[in-house]
Amino acid sequence: MRVMVFVPADRNSEAGVMPTQEMLSTMMKFNEELVKAGVMLDGQGLTPTSKAKRVRFSGNQRTVIDGPFAESKELVAGYWIWQVKTLEEAVEWLKRAPFDGGIEVTIRPLFEPDDFGKELTPELRGKQEQLRGEMDRQKRS
Amino acid sequence: MSSGATHEAVAAVWRIESARLIGALLRLVRSVELAEDLAQEALIAALERWPESGIPDNPGAWLMTTAKHRALDHLRQRKMQQRKHEQIGREAASSQGDEPTLQAGLEHDVGENFGDDLLRLIFIACHPVLSREARAALTLKMLGGLATEEIARAFLVPEPTMAQRIVRAKRTLGEARVPFELPQSAELQNRLSSVLEVIYLIFNEGYAATSGDTWMRPELCQEALRLGRILAQLMPAEAEVHGLLALMELNASRLPARVDTQGQPILLLDQDRTRWDQLLLHRGLTALQRAEKLKQPLGPYTLQAAIAACHARARDAAQTDWPRIVALYDALAELTLSPIVELNRAVAVSMAFGPGAGLELLAPLAEEPALKTYHLLPSVRGDLLFKLGRYAEATGEFQRAAAMTQNACERTLLLRRAEESRGNQASAKRHISIVR
C-alpha cells in the first residue's frame, strides 16, 4: 500500500525560518534510511503559505485568496509518499523520524485503483476517457 | 487501548528489522541456518513480551540484544561440548567464532556494517548452489521478512512444502560451505546476475502469474520492487542493477491498466494510458537514466527497460517508436540468444514494418525446442494472421495457444480471440457471397 505522510507547519516554517544544519542533517539521515529500505517513493518540503494562494468556490463564484494563512496547525509543511506493506509498517517508520516538540504527523493511505472498482462503472470510465480524448485534441490543436 | 503492541505492530517492526538483524547475526555466527534461527527466536520473544510491555523505544536494538544473548548461549553450549571432546583426548575443532571474538563483534556498532551485512545476505540467499525456486523463497524470507506461510501463498504451494524448501535451502548452503564473504570482482558479475535473476523472477511471478486464477499478484511485484530499490542503493555503480529497477518500475506503472473490471487482462496497446501510474513511470525513467549514465555496455535488463521506456514515453499506442524498439530488440537478441526475445522482436518488426514481415520471422521459431510449449508463440502467430485477414488460420492458432496456457484468465482471453476470428471468417464468407 501507498501512504502519504503529512508534516504540519509550525510558526518557524510559516515564518520561512530555515531549519538548522543539525536538523537538516538528522532529517537527511532519516530520509536516507527510508530510501535504503526501499520505502520512500517521493517527498518534498513546501514553501510557507505566504507564497500560497487559495481559491474559494461558492456557486458560480470563484474567489482567490492570497496567503499567508492563519491556522498553522492545519497547514502542511512537507510530505512523503511511502510504499509499505501495512499501515503499521508506516507507523513504525514514522516513529523513527527525528521530530519533537509535540508536533503531530499524519499518515494517510492512498486509494488503490481497486478501491474505485465498483464505483467507477464501465460507463463512467468511458465518459472519463472521452473527456481525456477531448483534452488531448485540444492540447494538440 | 493499552500500551500493548498488536500482532500487526510486531510484524511491522519485524519487516523493518529482520534483514538487518539476520545480516548482523550472520557476520557473527557465520551460518545462515543459525543466524536465521536466532533471529526467529528473537521474534518469538518479542511476540511474547511486547503485547504486555508495549513496543520498546528502540525495537531493533531490543531484538539484536535478545538474539545476541541466544547466540552466546549457543556458543557456550558448543564450547562445553568441545571441552568434553578434548577431555577424551581429541583435538578441539576449529576455533572459528570463539567467545571473545564473538563478544567483540557483539559490541561493534551494527549500524556501520548495515550495508555490507545486507549485501552479503542477498548474495548468499541468491547463491547459484540453490535452485531458482529456493533462492526466491530464501530471499523473500530473509530479506523481505515474509513469513513462510505468506511465501507459500504467493507461490501457490502448501505451507509445509515451502517450509521444507526453505529448510533444505539453508542446509544446502551450510553443507556446500558457501563462503560468507562477498564475492571478489572476478566472480562478482556472475553472482550479481544470479541476484538480479531472482529479483526479476519474483517480480514476474507477480506480474504475469504463470498459474492460478488471477493474472497478477501485485504483492509479489511490490516485494521485488522493494528488493530492487534496496539493491540500487547498495550497488549504485552497477548499471544493470538500475536497469532492472527501471524495468520493474516501468512495468509496474502499467499494473493499474492491465486488467478490466472483470479481472481479464488488457494488452499493452489496448490499455488506457491515462491509468498508468505516473509516479512509478517517472521513477522508472529516472532509474534508466542512471543506468545509461554509468557508460557501461548496455546489459539485458537495461535494454529491456529502454524498450519499456519507449512505451512509457508514447502518449498513445499509435505514437510508439517501433523502429527504435526493433533496434533495441536487435541488440537484446544478440546479447541473450533467447528465442523468446526473437519472438518479441518479431512482434516489434510487425508493428514497425507490417504483420507480414513479423510472420516471416516467426517461421524459424517453430523449430525451437524452448518454444514448443510456449503459448505466446501461437498467440502471436494468431494475432499476425488475424491482421492479415487469414481468419481460419488465426482461429486455429488462438485455440492452440489457449490449450497451452496454465493461466485461467489468459485462456479466456485467447478463446475470446479465437471466437472473434471465427466470427470474422464467417462474415468474410458472407460478404463474398453477397458481392457475388
| β-strand amount of chain A | 25-35%
Can you write the helix and strand succession of chain A as a string?
Answer: EHHEEEEHEH
Poorly predicted spans of chain A: none
Q: What percent of residues of chain B are in strands?
A: under 5%
The count of β-strands of chain B is 0
Annotation field: number of helices of chain B: 19
What's the helical proportion of residues of chain B? over 70%
**Largest sheet: spatial strand order of chain A:** 2-5-1-6
Question: What does the oligomeric state look like here?
Answer: heterodimer
Strand and helix layout:
The complex is a heterodimer of chains A (141) and B (436).
Chain A: E1 2-8, H1 11-14, H2 21-36, E2 40-45, E3 53-58, E4 61-66, E5 76-83, H3 87-95, E6 106-109, H4 122-140
Antiparallel strand pairs in A: 1-5, 1-6, 2-5, 3-4
Chain B: H1 7-29, H2 32-53, H3 59-87, H4 99-107, H5 110-125, H6 132-142, H7 148-154, H8 159-175, H9 185-207, H10 218-234, H11 239-253, H12 278-293, H13 300-313, H14 322-336, H15 339-353, H16 355-362, H17 376-387, H18 391-404, H19 408-435
Description:
- The complex is a heterodimer of chains A (141) and B (436).
- Chain A is 34% helix and 26% strand.
- Chain A has 141 residues and is α+β, with helices and mostly antiparallel strands.
- In chain A, strands 2-5-1-6 form a 4-stranded antiparallel beta sheet, with helices on one face. A two-stranded antiparallel sheet of chain A has the order 3-4.
- The radius of gyration of chain B is 26 Å and the shape is elongated.
- Chain B has helices spanning 7-29, 32-53, 59-87, 99-107, 110-125, 132-142, 148-154, 159-175, 185-207, 218-234, 239-253, 278-293, 300-313, 322-336, 339-353, 355-362, 376-387, 391-404, 408-435.
- The longest helix of chain B has 29 residues, at 59-87.
- The model of chain B is unreliable at 90-98 (pLDDT under 50).
- The interface between A and B is medium-sized, with 24 and 32 residues.
